[in-house]
Amino acid sequence: MDPSFLPAWRLAELTRAGKIGCLELLDHFIARTERFDARLNAVVVHDFERARQRAKALDQGARAEGGPLFGVPMTVKESFDVAGLPTTRGHAELRDHRAEQDALAVERLVRAGAVVFGKTNVPVDLADWQSYNPLYGTTSNPWDVARTPGGSSGGSAAACAAGLAGLELGSDIGGSIRVPSHYCGLFGHKPTWNLVPLRGTAPTDIGAVTDIAVSGPLARSAQDLAIAMTVLAGPDAAETGVAVTLPPPRTTRLAEMRFAVWAEEPGQPTDPETVALIGQLADHLAQQGATVSRRARPAFDPADAYRLFLTLLDCAWSGRLTEAQIAERRAAQAQLSPDNSSADAVMLRAVDLPHRDWLKLNERRLVIRRAWSAFFRDWDVLLCPVIATPALPHMQQGATWERRMTVDGQIIAYNDMLFWPGLIGGFHLPASVAPLGRSQGGLPIGVQIAGPIGGDRTTIAAAAALEANWRAFTPPPGFA
After folding, report:
1. Which of these is catalytic: 79, 131, 152, 153?
2. Catalytic residue among 176, 215, 221, 432
3. Percent of the chain having pLDDT more than 90?
4. I want to staple 112 with a disulfide (CB 3.0 to 4.6 A). Which of 50, 69, 74, 469 is the partner?
């Protein structure tokens, strides 16, 4: 049996049963990385020998006592601390930095039996839908190496989709788990905000939780998402003794599920193939007996919610900016035209926002959160696009706010694609991504499955239902 593209749950099943050794399995994925990663440049930090030592130790231990990820070889996003390895967030000047201890999420995965053998590429400061930087270079999409695998968890998605690792750990503030999962044909999960602790992922040793930002898994099956969330979820024991138990999914039967479908929004250009595929999925779900509505919407103005997200996003980012970067943004803000309503302009206007004004914005957010909660009393999940297009060609000229692209015949600013990620993430909702289909050019397209706060198991259950009844993960050609 070739384990290259098996889901993590199946890999752990094989190692626990003794059908393959942990070291044997690890060496298989290391060999694949050495063979294929020259095409992708996804796994940019190697930790092969320490991983082999851990795998040997697992082989010598009691298999029956192995955790849910026993022996699963995996890599993690470069921004997660792994003791002894660099954490640079793409900054060349940090090439000599070494983490002193594992990030809490990494620690939990290792405790569950995972074998971490490397780290995967990111954009500088995790602030792009492409994964390239001056230290590690450019990561490519295994479906088309002329295109990006996404960002900021792009290296993670490329490695998982190409069968270089059994499971991946990423993070998301503006779509950084969801977009790479969509671009690479994977399953992914952006958890409810603050469900998975971020300790060990910040550029500096800070204790505060970053607004909107989350950590979560990328995988080749929905069941892997469920297992990973069982491992990752829960508060930091260093701060509290309180435990969290996620509620079970509302249902696991497709015919009992209630799907709201939001495939397009006026004023927000979205790839017509994505819109059409979501419509086809909605038809299929209705044929399978599920309750489906294409008109149900939460009770708020989407344009207002989007602008609110953009402002809160910039405020969340501001804590990791240098004084020089803040000065640059002040200068850019002073040059803004009053009628510029682009995403970049909305975010620039948040520079130096008084705290009292932020509190008012947060109150507005809570009103919209409650509207989402009311909506999800009637609907189990919402299906919508992940982002405006399938995987983009490599596009590295200029800063993100200087780039332009064409979507459905309209020229838009690069960052104006934040609508679909922000509509969900800005209000702290969980969202899973599942494969939806392919573009005419053969690129993967995913669907975003959003749910109520704390409804992580419901969105993952919906992803599992789509996996069984619609589309499963398909390996990219050329990586067998």
Report:
1. 152
2. 176
3. 93
4. 69
| pLDDT number for residue 87 | 97
Tell me, yes or no, whether 226 and 79 share the same domain: yes
Total domains in the chain come to: 2
pLDDT tens-place string over residues 154-177: 999 999 999 999 999 999 999 999
**Residue 156 falls in the annotated catalytic set:** no
**pLDDT reported for residue 205:** 56
Residue for token pair 């993670």: 156
> Is position 176 annotated as part of the catalytic site?
yes
173 and 115 share one domain: yes
Is the pTM higher than 0.85? The answer reads yes
Domain-embedded: residue 286: yes
Look up the CATH number of the domain holding residue 26.
3.90.1300.10
Q: Does residue 224 share a domain with residue 110?
A: yes
- Domain shared by 353 and 322, yes or no: yes
Please list, in sequence order, all residues whose beta carbon lies within 8 angstroms of the beta carbon of residue 466, skipping any fewer than 6 positions away.
Answer: 222, 281, 434, 435, 447, 449
- Average confidence (pLDDT) over 65-88: 96
Residue 84 and residue 121 in one domain: yes
- Mean per-residue pLDDT of the chain: 96
Q: What is the pLDDT of residues 187-206, one digit of tens each?
A: 999 999 999 999 999 765 56
Predicted pLDDT of residue 319: 80
* Structural domain that includes position 99: 8-254
Return the pLDDT at 271.
98
Q: Examine the domain organization and report whether 379 and 299 are in the same domain.
A: yes
**Does residue 152 sit within a domain?**
yes
Long-range contacts of 274-277 (CB under 8 A, 24+ apart): 274/385, 274/388, 274/389, 274/390, 274/436, 274/445, 275/385, 277/436, 277/437, 277/445, 277/447
pLDDT at residue 402 greater than cutoff 80:
yes
